[in-house]
Amino acid sequence: MEVGIAGATTEDANIRIDLIPSAFGNHDALILAGYTADDARTATVNFLAEWRSAAITTGQIVVQGRPTPPHTSWVQTSHLVVTPEGSATPIYDDDITTDENGRFTLSLIPGTYRLWIKGSHTLASASTAALTYGTNEVAFDILREGDANDDNLVNISDFSILASSFATVSGDAFYDSRADFNDDGVVNISDFSLLASNYTLAGAAP
C-alpha cells in the first residue's frame, strides 16, 4: 500500500497517518516520500507515520509435569484457535510453538477474543481476553497431561496407550511418545501419575 499526498500548497507541516491493516496478519508496506508544492514558496510535506496495526499478544502456558522454565521440554507444538467475541468463525486455527518459557507471540487486530489452546497429549484450556494496541499478556489455566489419543478426554483409551509402552525409552520398539506426558524420553511411573491425576477429566471445548 502506497500512501502519499500530492499538490500541497500549505506551509511546511507534519501529517500523521495511522495505518490499520484490513486483514488479520497482513502488514502492508508503507512508502514515504516528500512532495513539493506548485506554490511559489515550495512547501515540503513531511510524513510522520505510526503503525497501529496490531495488538501484540504474548500467551503464557503452564504444562503439567514440566521442570521449572526455562527448559527445552517447554518447547512444544500446541494447537491454537482464536475466535472473536460474538462470532462462531475463528480468525486463527493453527499450530503454534512455545519457547523454553512456555510463551508464544501472535499479532491480532484489537478486540475481544476467546483463545483456546491444546497440546498433543494435554487437555485444552481457554481464556477470554480484551486486546488493545500494543503488548497484551494472556495467561491460560494449566494444560493437564494424560490425553494420549488427543481427544480432549482422559480415560481408559489413554491408559491403554500408556500401558502398551510402559517402561520403554525413546528408541525402543514399543516406545510411544503420546504416553510420554512429561516429554523426558521415558514412559514410566511419572507419566502414569500424570494420567491418574486427571483421569475422567475433559478439557475446555473449542
Give the tags.
disordered N terminus, elongated, 12 strands, 4-stranded antiparallel sheet, about 210 residues, mainly beta
Lateral strand order in the biggest sheet: 6-5-8-9
Largest pleated sheet? 4 strands, antiparallel
Distance between the termini: 36 Å
Number of helical elements: 2
- CA gyration radius, whole angstroms: 25 Å
Tell me, what's the shape? elongated
Mean pLDDT: 82
Q: What's the helical proportion of residues?
A: under 10%
Number of strands: 12
- Helix-strand makeup class: mainly beta
Strand content: 25-35%
Low-pLDDT windows of residues: 1-52
Order of helices and strands: EEEEEEEEEEHEEH
List the helices and strands and how they pair.
Blueprint: E1 13-19, E2 35-36, E3 44-51, E4 55-60, E5 77-84, E6 92-97, E7 103-108, E8 111-119, E9 125-131, E10 134-139, H1 156-164, E11 168-169, E12 186-187, H2 189-197
Parallel strand pairs: 1-3, 4-10
Antiparallel strand pairs: 2-3, 4-7, 5-6, 5-8, 8-9, 11-12
Q: Gist?
A:
The chain is mainly beta. The chain has helices at residues 156-164, 189-197; strands spanning 13-19, 35-36, 44-51, 55-60, 77-84, 92-97, 103-108, 111-119, 125-131, 134-139, 168-169, 186-187.
Describe it.
With 206 residues, this protein is mainly β. The chain is 9% helix and 33% strand. The protein contains two helices and twelve strands, in the order ββββββββββαββα. Strands 6-5-8-9 form a four-stranded antiparallel sheet, with no helix packed on it. A three-stranded mixed sheet has the order 1-3-2, with no helix packed on it. Strands 7-4-10 form a three-stranded mixed sheet, with no helix packed on it.
